Amino acid sequence: MPYSKHPTAIVETENIGEGTQIWAFVHILPGAKIGAGCNLCDHVFIEDDVVIGDRITIKSGVQLWDGVRIEDDVFIGPNVTFTNDLFPRSKHHPGKYANTVVCKGASIGANATILPGITVGQNAMVGAGSVVTDDIPPNAIVTGNPARIVSYVTQHRQRDVKTLKPEDPLQELPDTKAKLIEFPEISDLRGKLTFAETPGLLPFTPVRIFMLYDVPGKDVRGEHAHKELHQFLVCAKGSCAVVVDDGQERFEVALDRPTLGLHIPPMVWATQYKFTSDAVLLVLASDIYKAEDYIRDYEEFMELVSK
Q1: CA spacing 20 to 30 A to 135: which of 169, 185, 199, 233?
Q2: Which residues are catalytic?
Q3: pTM for the structure as a whole
Q4: For residue 176, what are the domain limits?
């Protein structure tokens, strides 16, 4: 037997990887598949149609129902509740249960509830007691009921990304492909004026212009990269936060004044969130809209970056 189990555990499946530890009063049904190097703590229950990857930690009091898929290196805290039926009735079973996927490296805090059909993105973190009602993007930190994005994690996942504040010097930004540019400001009794021109302050000649506004503060925009397109973001009114990720570094910048612009070159994953109610985000693009230029899957993005 390549794994170890406590005498009180009931293990009905033969699909368990080497080095997995199964502790007291765990019950695993015959169809479940468990990877290598996992740690299943006391009082964990796992149904038939469950697939668990390698190096998973599942703390006490967790039940994994049919349709749950857990990828490698995931942490699931005590008493996390998974569900697989939005409209459960006693003795009435759907033909197929919804698949719930927790992607590689994600962590779910104690007593969180995950609704059926949800995908928790790669390296995401769910705060203790949160109720997850919608998909969570890769690297996002969510808390609350319903769970909302409050931050993003660093490349190493231990802490939040650093947010550049208005008083911080621009040279303190990490060395990423994205760049901040400060515009000149002219002020007199008639008000203030700021400007940019190309060639000069703008890193490219704009071909397309669009604006984002009336975005609810709980919503997230972007969550994609471009293969060839350059973008330049300025929050002309109000403020928002932008998380940029070039596959090596990840940081968050607060766009909170019309004199501060953010250049996002190709092959940089960008997410905009924390919109104030009056925010108007102006975006300049180097080309017309081309659907084929978008990369909307984070894992695909990381694969392309690695090449």
Answers
A1: 233
A2: 224
A3: 0.79
A4: 163-306
